[in-house]
Amino acid sequence: MGATEHSEYVIEVDQVKKWYVQKKVQKKDGKVQRRQQIKAVDGVSFQLKRGETLGVIGESGCGKSTLGRLLIQLEPPTGGDIRLFGESSQALLKKDPLKFRRSCQMIFQNPFDTFDPRYRLKKILMDPMKLHGIGASEEERMQMVLDVLEQSGLTPAIDYVDRFPHELSGGQLQRIAILRSMLLNPTFMVADEPVSMLDVSIRADIINMLENLVKQKNTALVFISHDIATTRYISDKVAVMYLGRIVEMGPTDEVLHNPQHPYTKVLISNCASLNPLEKQEAIAIEGEPPTPIDNGPGCYFAPRCYCAEAHCSERYPELTDIGGGHFVACSCCGASGRA
Amino acid sequence: MALLEIKNFNVTYKMKEKEVYAVQDACLELEPQDAIGIVGESGSGKSTLAMGILRLLPRTAETTGEALFEGSDLMQMSTEELSKVRWNEIAVVFQKSMNALSPVHKIGKQMEDVYLIHKPGTPKKAIRDRIYELFRVVNLSDRVYELYPHELSGGMMQRISIALSLIMTPKLLVMDEATTALDVVTQSQILREIIQLQEQLHLTRLMITHDVSVVSSTCNKVVVMYAGRIMEKGRVVDVLVNPKHPYTQGLLKSFPSFHGEKTDLRGIPGSLPDLSVRPTGCVFAPRCPYATDKCRTQLPKLQSAGDETQNWQVACHLVGGEENGRD
Lengths: 339, 327
Fold this sequence. Notes:
By secondary structure, chain A is of the alpha/beta class. Chain A is built from 12 helices and 12 strands. Chain A has a single domain, classed as P-loop containing nucleotide triphosphate hydrolases (Rossmann fold, 3-Layer(aba) Sandwich), CATH 3.40.50.300. Chain A has helices spanning 64-71, 89-95, 97-103, 121-131, 138-151, 157-160, 170-182, 200-217, 228-234, 252-257, 262-269, 331-336, and strands at 11-26, 32-48, 53-57, 79-84, 87-88, 104-107, 188-192, 220-224, 237-242, 245-251, 320-321, 327-328. In chain A, helix 7 runs parallel beside helix 8. Mean pLDDT of chain B is 86; it is low at 321-327. Chain A binds chain B through residues 59-60, 169, 171, 199-208, 226-230, 232-233, 256, 266-268, 270-277, 279, 282, 284-285, 288, and chain B through 41-42, 153, 155-156, 183-189, 191-192, 210-214, 216-217, 236-237, 240-241, 250-258, 262, 265-269, 271.
């Protein structure tokens, strides 16, 4: 692994931005406003080592899916830099698209739309390997496919390879999607809400399988989800996003059990517990997440925040380390230190 | 007297080659001001049961059994009688309410229409006041009246459909995955509002969801369904704390918990059985870790577990078997 020596991190994300431009807006009063910028992702930075898993949580519309698409260059970023082993991912993509695509894989939310309905599973699984030159012959590739299917509990594997996607359940399809990515031995993977379409009773198995594979192959994973409890199981680190920015990031249990940012506190308190006896008081906040257009100079969360102070709406607080790699972007709780 | 009593309710979807037994032998009682949650995986027949009671199923579905609403059988009612009950007495909130609203009419206009169908000839002013009142109940501002559905967020539209379901002050509110499509924060906002509404308006509520945490935080009774059958029912504080049926235990284990150890996350192996085949024994036996020969050959009936006051029933030989042995 020559590449690993260049940098200790698999992926380094530095102030990456994605601003969408809305060209023309007809306002209510008849005025036409031109060129509004929607800041879907607005300056996100983090680093991931090999075998590490980062969970990204937040409400819908906070830019977590856009971030996932930026990371594997499905969309070019408006600003900032994404580096893989110290090299800019845009340059890598330009230099050798095939190699880049092989090293960065993505698992999508809806397993029913992921596959071509007219291909059998063996074609679905073997085509990417053929394309990337894995395995010397058809037979060898077939054997690899059968092996991974057996390992992931789709037994007998030989029965599965001749099936069409519609013959499998959602959980089985999502397994196939994960396996297909994993067969290419990617160094970095993005999973965008991989279990939210699946039934609760099979979610656990998919999460376990993904976690095992990632650990086994030492892949860096970004796990995007709005389900905090699920994210807790798979992640080493957690980043909480609000309106395109990371408001809190740190080791999973540290962030989730000792949240500092008011928004993280709100999110966590609103997660209903399974046990009806342990009632916890949910922190109520007003309104819905606003569209990320023309956010004020202050903290983006200030208008909905229950403990906002006057200085919150003056400038955006910096992401500061409050100890143990736990970063918080809040001007109120940063001062008070750790509770 | 129970507000709604369902007795031996069966729903069968008839198709050309086969019949699918979607709901079998469901029995359920709703006391006034109860909040009952029906949980289960997708395909377990929870929505079919609720829609069957309301007679909203397509013609291919054949229903047998009784659903007594305040003593009169909903299944035997004529179309005219039924339309008097619907919305006036029983209202439904569906999962994708955004799809239920017309995109080319203003919200206010759509709500007026519903009101006029049930109370024709009401003066416009009175309707408008009633709608504004409902907006306040579900925390919406009055300006929503003049807006089109595309101008609202998902949470606001879900509030509209809840307001719409309350327009005739029904006694029973059926919520079919009403908060599933929403965000965590919005979901808990709406759930809190619903609990308040229930106290204010003395509603009886039937919640259908696959999210057990929603039931545990908003309901007082729970019904666990699997493959068209009721596996366990009882009070939330009993069933969700000390589940007796192996399926309920498995279902609760497969939810990642927020506290405690991370290692104990397990799914239930296998998948739902083919509902077009009538099983000989317990429907859960093929996936059950404790299944015995008796489970595979004899169908367990709902038997009471716990003492009289708990009204806790479990359909499992292993739970009932212990008690039978003692007798």
